Amino acid sequence: MLTQKELISLKKGDVIKHFLLIRKCDVRTAKSNKPYLSLELADSSLTIQSNVWENFDSFFEKVKNGDVVFVTGFMEEYMGSPQLRITNIRFAEPSDKVDPSDFLEKSKRDLNQMKDEFFNRMESISNIKLKLLLKLIFDEDNFKKFSTAPAGKSWHHSYIHGLLEHTLEIIKICDLMCDIHPELNRDLLICGAMLHDFGKTEELKFDSSFEYTDKGKLIGHIVISAMKINEEAKKIPDFPEDLKECLIHLILSHQGKLEYASPVVPKTMEAIALYHADELSAKINAYKRAIQAGTLNENKWTKFISLASTDLYNHGISSEVEVEDEINKTLFD
Amino acid sequence: MLTQKELISLKKGDVIKHFLLIRKCDVRTAKSNKPYLSLELADSSLTIQSNVWENFDSFFEKVKNGDVVFVTGFMEEYMGSPQLRITNIRFAEPSDKVDPSDFLEKSKRDLNQMKDEFFNRMESISNIKLKLLLKLIFDEDNFKKFSTAPAGKSWHHSYIHGLLEHTLEIIKICDLMCDIHPELNRDLLICGAMLHDFGKTEELKFDSSFEYTDKGKLIGHIVISAMKINEEAKKIPDFPEDLKECLIHLILSHQGKLEYASPVVPKTMEAIALYHADELSAKINAYKRAIQAGTLNENKWTKFISLASTDLYNHGISSEVEVEDEINKTLFD
Amino acid sequence: MLTQKELISLKKGDVIKHFLLIRKCDVRTAKSNKPYLSLELADSSLTIQSNVWENFDSFFEKVKNGDVVFVTGFMEEYMGSPQLRITNIRFAEPSDKVDPSDFLEKSKRDLNQMKDEFFNRMESISNIKLKLLLKLIFDEDNFKKFSTAPAGKSWHHSYIHGLLEHTLEIIKICDLMCDIHPELNRDLLICGAMLHDFGKTEELKFDSSFEYTDKGKLIGHIVISAMKINEEAKKIPDFPEDLKECLIHLILSHQGKLEYASPVVPKTMEAIALYHADELSAKINAYKRAIQAGTLNENKWTKFISLASTDLYNHGISSEVEVEDEINKTLFD
Amino acid sequence: MLTQKELISLKKGDVIKHFLLIRKCDVRTAKSNKPYLSLELADSSLTIQSNVWENFDSFFEKVKNGDVVFVTGFMEEYMGSPQLRITNIRFAEPSDKVDPSDFLEKSKRDLNQMKDEFFNRMESISNIKLKLLLKLIFDEDNFKKFSTAPAGKSWHHSYIHGLLEHTLEIIKICDLMCDIHPELNRDLLICGAMLHDFGKTEELKFDSSFEYTDKGKLIGHIVISAMKINEEAKKIPDFPEDLKECLIHLILSHQGKLEYASPVVPKTMEAIALYHADELSAKINAYKRAIQAGTLNENKWTKFISLASTDLYNHGISSEVEVEDEINKTLFD
Amino acid sequence: MLTQKELISLKKGDVIKHFLLIRKCDVRTAKSNKPYLSLELADSSLTIQSNVWENFDSFFEKVKNGDVVFVTGFMEEYMGSPQLRITNIRFAEPSDKVDPSDFLEKSKRDLNQMKDEFFNRMESISNIKLKLLLKLIFDEDNFKKFSTAPAGKSWHHSYIHGLLEHTLEIIKICDLMCDIHPELNRDLLICGAMLHDFGKTEELKFDSSFEYTDKGKLIGHIVISAMKINEEAKKIPDFPEDLKECLIHLILSHQGKLEYASPVVPKTMEAIALYHADELSAKINAYKRAIQAGTLNENKWTKFISLASTDLYNHGISSEVEVEDEINKTLFD
Amino acid sequence: MLTQKELISLKKGDVIKHFLLIRKCDVRTAKSNKPYLSLELADSSLTIQSNVWENFDSFFEKVKNGDVVFVTGFMEEYMGSPQLRITNIRFAEPSDKVDPSDFLEKSKRDLNQMKDEFFNRMESISNIKLKLLLKLIFDEDNFKKFSTAPAGKSWHHSYIHGLLEHTLEIIKICDLMCDIHPELNRDLLICGAMLHDFGKTEELKFDSSFEYTDKGKLIGHIVISAMKINEEAKKIPDFPEDLKECLIHLILSHQGKLEYASPVVPKTMEAIALYHADELSAKINAYKRAIQAGTLNENKWTKFISLASTDLYNHGISSEVEVEDEINKTLFD
């Protein structure tokens, strides 16, 4: 585990002796025709720029995105933004025991608590066929990948453990809907919620950056999930055919519309519930992150976000409890 | 209050002495060129067909949709469907103390319980400006209309008290989302949820049938709600301008997309949450009702539902608790 | 095998002693209030109307769409359309050795010739992994279903053996494209062509009429095909992972656009070729059938065809060879 | 009022002693790593670039977009474009009596003439309720804002007084349509035309540049207008409810389609007339400006204009009167 | 010329001795199995229903839509609608000197006045090449067809002389726009307005009913117009190539968008003006007609109009001049 | 004919004495404020970058895109890309006998072979009217342009002779479809295939680069083709009107949908065949070129291609014949 200070906590002049992840690496050329190495370096708290002007040739031949390096130097500021002046740089070695994933953003929620929530909910599934299917699919290896993966490359829950966090949110929403609508088959819906994005463990690679795999682009997480359920259900004796079809239907239809890449639209109550629970979880997370990322500099409006078809607004109206407290103070003090 | 038996509970040959609502009323002509009166009559449980062949002229001159009549006759069956043979029919009179609304479908939830839920939630709003605004808008008269209205003409929660039921569902979903996301301004979001469809009390008439009013068609419930909030907020001293704008934005954007008649798209975290909470509540209710209505006759598939762009499926897979019970029996007995 | 004359060859007054298929069966009521049985009866050449006015109650209780009946009666004409006057009707019995499928429209092409074409083409696949996969999938049972199935419910190649006919057309088009473009991987493309609609054998039922199965509606032929390939490829040792992914991609993307229910769009040269070869084969067949069906009565224009977004035109301009012959005669005789 | 020469009339070498508006202001860094101040300065005739290389720190700390500065220097040319060499720059002071709005582009039409046209037309409204409503809304303050505002941020009539110019064009078109169609209610239509974009006075800020306000983004000019009419009509005794609804309907529907942000589509003759009159006025102005801006350099084609989905063509075919004159000269001289 | 009374002015019991146009003619069968002839008969004021029960066989063999017949009988009423009881019917003969077109709805405007307007405007075209082109195209034969044709089959200006009426409206709108924008080439724009729908003279047949011709469906009025201009301009020496291209561009782009069947979108100022002038003229006429047709029976709302995507509203708010007069009376008397 | 070596075959240090085409030419300014000339130079095999730092003023005043120059210098490499160091540059002169078109990319197919294929197919048209029409249109001048033109500016077959290559592919596909469907009128379809893109000879200029002409933008190749056929068919006595309309319909509808700029959609069997044959030929070529261009550097995925709405994949799975050979070797050696 890394013990170094987070980049975001450092100030101008602070000394750097840090392992950092290479996010981008190019040779560019200054107008003086002098070539230099342009680096984007990151820990999980910040991505920072640095230029190297001398003796970078042999380094550049070996480096690739996702590498971890050990950097010596100090923090500078350039035109208002933090920058890194590098005095020495070397590749991390196995003995350093650092992992590229240590440098990726992670869910703010506690992983162990999320795991407990997930397995407790799985245990309370009544239908033994479905519970067995879940246990086959979420075996140790698969669950490790599932609990590590982001839910997406860049839009919502796009950070380590994001897929698990997102799945738990959907489960909670679905359980609430089952409380309201006893007509919903709770086991089927919760099982669908748990498995709906399972295919993202193969659609994405997320060891040192978030990228689509070839399989992810050619087949997609929806059909990967469906094929997985089909395979594993075959191993369970007497798995009811209609139950399997309804479960696969939940997976296939969970993006709600053909143009969102679902090959069938929702046709059951559980399917329409899962689609909208997914939307609710995904969109609030995405908008929250876009607002947080976009309004760092006291701007209330983000730039135009094409996935939202608008710019977004951080109204900054303070949480009303304090307001009332303040008022009460005024009234009673 | 009506004490007569529900139509749905009657059988062929049963005697009818019922107040019923006129849903449709036409004179048609048989191929024999003989004109007859074709009626659709309803209580809140069923709509039923009846033909009158003689002496209907003076009745036809006075009757209009939404009238209540007192019918004597008996139940018949014709080609598999129930039909009503009328021996006498007269208009209801004030002394009958019947109200057309008694013949409209109603929410299955208990009205008083829903009212309590609503007012309790309103009381727990912390922001005193917003709480005051809610109290001004939900005065006795308005709340009576609000708690009576359906949430729509025919798609979701399209029954008496449906608007209140729908609003309460959204409040629950929004409260859950606030538990997950402390960044949401809970008071603002819940206040928006309570008011988002308030304009439907003027967009629809729902005394004897569900129809759009002229105002509803020309202005629509979204802008009616916004104008109402604008009016009432002006009566509250020092109502913060930014709070009012964010609240009106919630109302205006709650249908999520321009093509769904929202004049602005959601631009705040609360707005995106309200839109998807509304969708979740509306769509599950709509699909449930479509499935229930469409699969009465043992068909698992409904007819094509254009608002869903598909036919819907009633899988009929039994709730899994019993399945497990059965299995447990097998295991332990 | 049926030896009776085709309905289409009969004339007014001809005696009927035919096995026919029940396509639709309703009780309706005349304006005189007299109920009657309205039937649509068909052999593979024609669908014809008939009404039964007496003693149909016990028959109606047992009959369902897709039944075969033996009908005695004679041909009539009513307002310009052929009609059937039934004097006697009974259900077919096992001893009659008739099969509902004998009454369904069939491909005009010779089945054995089509089978030969298909297996010859399969034999000439060079890649032994792909050839083995095809043999596993097109085993005796599956090929029987595959060679019987229509390619659709009503639009293109919607007749018995239509799926095989359609597949062979696509294979020819794809082979031509491979001749033009050596960059195409011929084995992969032809294998994709052969398998692309395999899932229709489970998506549709086609024993006595063409209907979607529950599985067909919930999962769809595209994902059914993909899951089948995934299953069978696992049985082949060392089946290359990239080859499997590219093949499944061909299946998934063959409808070309997300809104046409493909969960991924074509991303390889073979995928774009297969999509457009499929379109070419399907659309010409569909337009030909719509024109033939729609312009029986000397009208040059069909009714509006919603899938084509237009009415279609049968120009009737004679094949030009004869025209030239005629001219040549004029010139030289 | 400014008496300085317009920038557009100056030549290389001319001395500058001008008040100018800061449109953009950034510190950038040259490849030599030397920081410099990059300025965009404008009067109402031209926007021009200038770089400052020394002693700009204290200036940069105070400057913001929309400020007016007094610049001493002279005109240069750099790579074919005019540029400004600054020898001295200071902020304008109150005693300078300059206003940022003096530096914004203005309508080519005479303001007083436009005001007269507007008020004369208002006076000729026959319906006294509508005339009174107009007078309440267009009070001195509001009319000042209304007659100053642009009709948009960048597309059509996007210059000072543009909203008034645009409104007058629509009034003329609507009056012509009333001449053709006596069925139109002229007072209602003209009143709708006058008010349709009134909300733009609050949707936009236009003192020193054209930007959307928070209220503009959250609520939009359509609903701002509707709320204003609703408020003011309440002050007029016996304002007819149906007239108010039809007038608000005109405002709400004037963008014609839901996807253009109208919450209702046009449902009355006046509404469809206003929508298309608005389109006609807006689009010709927008295309004219795009062509004028895009074809300065003898190019006949503009760049691709995304709002028009095409590039635009300046055919340059001379006005035909002269052509004929020329011909006549040839004929008669 | 017909001197008979208009159908719309007749009352129940009035005697009929009228030439009328056959709009539809079918044999139907009553529930008694008795066949009867169902006719739709029309003069230019009304379309009326009539049934013939005896001896219609030989008549039915010869009759076709668009025939004129001479009918003796009298007016009846049936369930609130006027109906015709026929005692004798015969085909019109040449000696009757009646023309099917006398029975088609016509423009309310005076034809000669419209012709004068058209030719006067043509005379004032300054560009002699364009004026010559117009004279070549609007020769006597073509102008006769042009001034007779409707502007469409059923939507706007869909009556005899409608194309001329529509064209004149567009000319007026375009002249107004040229007054506002001197940048528009007035001759080019007016010439384009005159010719834009010329192809409708060949796209439609309108002798006895309004139908598309084969050429109209296969090629369409836009390209027919373009080909005509291309042909005729070739006959004019030195017709400027760029002028011809800009004129044809006006024709091709006048429906404004590709999806409205224009093969190019408007790219010149004149083209965008013509498109929106056409829209303005067409839509107001269409909405007016739909409202007039749909609100005959005191309903304020029409049925849903799919081309408008809404039902339409006849607000019935009286023209305001009288209102003010009344008020003035109150004030001054 | 050029005898110089192709740029693509040169290496670092090789001497250049080449005629090259100017593709782009700008003066830019280095950060040192030193202006320099930035050139893109090309032969038909490669486009290469070069900067000139001194004495370029008089050259820059005369140069324009599409000029041919004679360059002396040598090949360099800069940051991994080839670059050209120019020691001398002069404009080509007539005596050099070089043509800009020699520097444009060309079809890989042999031109004479393509011409033979085209004329042989034309000769085998049976219908003498159509054959005559083809001969009139493809006269020596027109065929020269037709056989030189690219089929597009940048998407498919966008190289010299590409239009002929594309047309021949479509002819082959159409002939195959005629083999399968005898209902197709082969002469009509093949004639339509030959002429469908003829208008591209006027829509595009392709002497030194590929650009749209004014006529191409204002009218488009579809209507240019239709007007040409209309003109030429008028010269043929007794050219059947219905044949002409069907042929023009083929041209007009060949882009298949209104939104793809066809003014009518396909309404005949031949039209639907031509549309999909065109799609098949165009899309495979476009995807092949995009993949080849995009995956030069060992990347398997291209960048996002907006016309395909995806990035494309070069799977690199080897043609299977060799694989089998290899296996056979393993088996038999």
Task: Write structural notes for this entry.
Six copies of one chain form a homohexamer. Chain A contains twelve helices and seven strands. In chain A, helix 5 (162-180) crosses helix 11, helix 6 (186-195) packs across helix 11 and helix 9 (221-233) runs antiparallel to helix 10 (241-253). Mean pLDDT of chain A is 89; it is low at 322-333. By secondary structure, the first copy, chain A, is of the alpha+beta class. In chain A, a hairpin with a 2-residue loop joins strand 4 and strand 5. Chain A has helices spanning 57-62, 111-123, 128-137, 140-148, 162-180, 186-195, 200-203, 214-218, 221-233, 241-253, 269-294, 320-332; strands spanning 15-29, 35-43, 46-52, 68-78, 81-91, 204-205, 211-212. In chain A, strands 3-2-1-4-5 form a five-stranded antiparallel β-sheet, with no helix packed on it. Chain A has a two-stranded antiparallel ribbon with strand order 6-7. Chains in contact: A-B, A-C, A-D, A-F, B-C, B-D, B-E, C-E, C-F, D-E, D-F, E-F. Chains A and F meet through helix 8 of A and loops of F.
